[in-house]
Amino acid sequence: MSSTDFLDYSNVTETTPRPPNLPTKYLWACGGTLILLIGTVGHILAIAVTLISRNMRAQSSSVYIIAMSVTGIITLYSGLIRYMIFIGFSDWQNDIRESSETFCKIHMVTTYVAIQYFAWLQATVAVDRLISVKWPYVYMKNGKWKVALIAIVVELFIVTCINIPLAMHTHQNERGYCVAEVKFYENIWGYIDLASYSLVPMFVMVLCNSFILYLLSKSKFRTGNNNSALARSLTIMLMSLNVLFVITTLPVSVVFFLDWGEFLSKRYLAIEVYWSAFSLMQYAGCAGTFFVYCVTGSKFREELRELYKRCCPCKAKKKSIANQTNTKNTSPALQSCSADYKALKKISQSNQKPV
Fold first, then answer.
1. Residues 86-125 pLDDT 10s
2. How many alpha carbons fall within 13 Å on the CB side of residue 340?
């Protein structure tokens, strides 16, 4: 389940003032800021590398990478930044959702759509990789970027339709809080969100990746040309991305099944810390995709170096010259042979001079 509105403390603050919770405040202020910076830079770089690389643009996976990066940025700037302001920097005083009822509905739906759509895209990537491994010739013929573009548009439409009932049951109450109807949220929407965001995508990822691992171990995934090497690199990279998603979203999904009951009413400050840590882990998984690309994708690293050379040609040239200089300095045998050759050439020329 997504972490957008797991805890609602409006009932608690009506009767008793909220005591300060410094661990939660520092988690969202410091940890949230770091995650936001890393995620923003990483997603922008991922988009730039994918668009510049001709080889990656030819793969349908490039459409998914760009879509995930754009969705990841929207997720961070709709969900994460809200809690950074609300908890980390204003002590539960300034909630951007409370500016108006219209914005309350728009922001609520946007946050849920983005975080669910991000999960759906990763599940689609797992299916795409399975098809490329199981039926490579069919994939090479039909696995074009246009097909991937149609797939992500259809998915976006479906996810948006799933979240329309949430907008219909969301309003500002008499105290100005942006809330969903309690019965709808607890009895219906919580399970819909849990299935759409976590359970179904996670099941698809685990199932597809299990088949991929079986097929790769069976066929050894021969790489006889550059296209197959790129496909193998993309498969490993995107499978690692799925693993990151499962690890970072599983804790906040498990939280939904726990019955806090009396524990929440008496120790809600401790629950805030747990919930904040799990939520930040979830957003860290959304922000850390670029590092997964770099660590597991050899072709992605090559394209990233090419992007660096294009953006910083002077530095790249200086580095190349320095490498050549180091190569010369570390080859004394070649220098010695060159000097001997020049000496012999001079002696030969002097012997050929007429007396």
1. 888 987 788 889 888 999 999 999 999 999 999 999 999 8
2. 6
The answer to whether 155 and 117 are in contact (CB under 8 A) is: yes
**CA–CA gap between residue 246 and residue 241 (Å, rounded):** 9
**Contact, 43 vs 72, CB < 8 A?**
yes
Contact call for residues 59 and 144 (beta carbons, < 8 A)? no
| Length of the chain in terms of residues written | 355
Torsion of Cα atoms, 214 then 218 then 219 then 223, to 10°: 60
In whole angstroms, what is the distance from residue 18 CA to residue 12 CA?
Answer: 8
Instruction: Write the CB contacts of 322 (distance below 8 Å, at least 6 apart in sequence).
Output: none
Burial 242-263 (b: 16+ CB within 10 A, else e): bebbbebbbbbbebeeeeeeee
CA-nearest of 77, 110, 60, 45 to 292 is 45
Which tens digit of pLDDT belongs to each residue from 239-278? 888 888 888 888 887 776 665 555 555 566 777 788 889 8
